[in-house]
What does this fold into?
Amino acid sequence: MIIDRRLNDRNKSATNRQRFIRRYKAQLRRAVTDAVAERSITDMERGAEVGIPARDISEPQFGIGRGGDRDFVLPGNTDFARGDRIPKPRDAAGGTGDGEPGEGGDSEDQFTFTLSREEFMNLFFDDLELPRLARTALGQSRQVRYRKGGFTPSGTPMNLSVTRSLRNAMARRIAMGASLRREIAELKTRGGYEAEIEALEQRLKNLPFLDEYDLRFRNKYPELQPISQAVMFCLMDVSASMTEAKKDLAKRFYILLYLFLTRKYESVELVFIRHTSEAEEVSEHDFFHDTKSGGTVVLSALKL
It folds into this structure.
């Protein structure tokens, strides 16, 4: 059997990588949630190194069963016969080595896995349980518009410029027939060269009306459209009624809004305004983590 991998991606481990992500998706989603809580809103569009506890990725292994009687002989056995008594091995948990017993300290190793930007964003969207339509809209790239610019000798029939093609054909016929007409005129003034004149006139008639060289097609080139700048205002009540869960939900909402704006605008400026009975402009860290509390007056934030 031959497996043709020529059409596959150069990254030969991509299939195994996707299989690993599907298998440990729950652990990776928890790691992404922890990473989102530690990151800034403007730092969401890159990959991340996430840690998975080693116990969560442990592979099943065969071991000696505890208890149970086996009264048959396996195929290929040359040492024992039916009815022989075999000494039972020690318990697997006890250990039979000659070394000293280890200390009873507990530890938990971490398996570090690097997520790309696309993988990180997909896991982030999965955790939010967004519909596929919203996920596609937030993840789309900026579109490039094509503008008309000049002509090219090759292209599709729908872009054929008839006027420019006929103009080139006329110029070619005039240029190639000028020397023939001049030579015919000279022979006619001398006289007695009817055979040569007839041959030159036949060559003049054989000039094609339209040649492939004459065809011109309308050319289009990609152009990035200018995008205006945007300012994103983040408002949040920091009174006692705002729990950590509500603040985390607010941060996820602002992350989605920021990701959407960065797809539509080249530059996005963030302004964080928190309010109790009074509003103030603060940094992102103070916006989500400061312990200030008080009453609730939304109008103060809107006025600011």
